[in-house]
Specification:
The chain has helices at 2-15, 20-39, 50-62, 67-86, 113-121, 128-142, 147-151, 182-192, 220-234, 241-254, 259-266, 271-293; strands at residues 158-159, 164-167, 176-179, 206-208, 214-217. It is mainly alpha-helical.
Length: 300
């Protein structure tokens, strides 16, 4: 029953329009749980119990997994068992009375404007790969794109007359438009004039074979390696590509933009997601500004 139920569960997600990446994540997590059940000698008659879930999570912790990883195990199984309950396969979810593993609150890393400027200045205008890298970094920082969104870009997504960038199939499968600054438009034109042709792909960003020749579309791993390499050349700490997105959000907020603007640019489906990520940073900035403005007031 378990394997058949998993396939039906995954099919329900596909039918609901959820992304293949989300479906594969559920498959991986639930199959990991199945594997643990088999290794523990449990059967279909005794694995749908809270004690089993607690043992599974405890075993994950003993193996050294991070709290965020354990929370991922929990969320995946919660979704699976909630579906089993709704479809009448089980009466009650074994996770109903089990709290989600606590994940320590950690601020995501963000790229500062000064770091972005140093990184961009360190990249010359010589080869087509240089112009590609300059555009990638500007799109990540000045448009706030996710890594996967960046790799999907095509030249026709740049709507220069409207000064907008079409971001296709972002998180949740939704399209959105992001404003284009003149600097990004210029970087796009610079790259487009020297971009090698590559048959069978309309992807904007192409990978290189190391000898200056294009060899296919640039993948997320290739962008990570490029950013790491460029940061070392520029004498900067190694920046995570996602940190550019966080840097843009904080720059918008610090310049007076509100949460709804950040939500639209970043493509969050709910403003609560935006607030959860950035409200604390905004408060930190407010506290620093308040302290600076109030120097000497009240005897301080």
């Amino acid at each position: 029953m378990a394997v058949d139920a998993l396939e039906l569960f995954l099919a329900s997600h596909l039918a609901a329009g959820h992304s293949p990446r989300t479906v594969e994540w559920y498959r991986y997590e639930v199959e990991r749980f199945y594997g643990w059940i088999d290794a523990s000698g449990l059967t279909d008659h005794n694995w749908v119990k809270p004690e089993v879930i607690e043992r599974y999570l405890a075993d994950s912790r003993l193996k050294g997994n991070q709290p965020s990883t354990m929370a991922g195990h929990y969320r995946a199984l919660q979704g699976f068992f909630n579906w089993l309950v709704k479809r009448g396969h089980v009466k009650i979810s074994p996770l109903a009375d089990i709290p989600m593993p606590k994940v320590p609150k950690k601020q995501p890393r963000r790229t500062e404007l000064a770091e972005y400027a140093v990184l961009l200045d360190s990249i010359p205008f010589e080869r087509w790969v240089d112009l590609r890298d300059r555009l990638v970094i500007q799109v990540l920082f000045l448009c706030g794109l996710r890594l996967a969104e960046c790799t999907k870009l095509a030249a026709h997504d740049f709507r220069l007359q409207a000064h907008l960038l079409l971001v296709r199939q972002g998180k949740g499968g939704h399209d959105r438009y992001v404003p284009l600054l003149p600097a990004v438009e210029q970087a796009f034109m610079n790259y487009l004039f020297v971009k090698p042709g590559f048959a069978g792909s309309d992807h904007l960003f192409l990978a290189t074979d190391g000898g200056g020749n294009a060899k296919g579309e640039l993948l997320p791993g290739g962008i990570r390696q490029m950013v790491r390499r460029r940061c070392k050349t520029a004498g900067l700490r190694v920046l995570n590509p996602h940190s550019f997105r966080h840097g843009l959000a904080m720059m918008l907020l610090n310049k007076g933009g509100d949460m709804s603007l950040v939500q639209k640019v970043l493509g969050h489906s709910q403003i609560s997601t935006t607030a959860r990520f950035y409200a604390e940073w905004l408060n930190d900035g407010m506290a620093r500004e308040f302290t600076e403005k109030m120097k000497g007031v009240g005897g301080a």
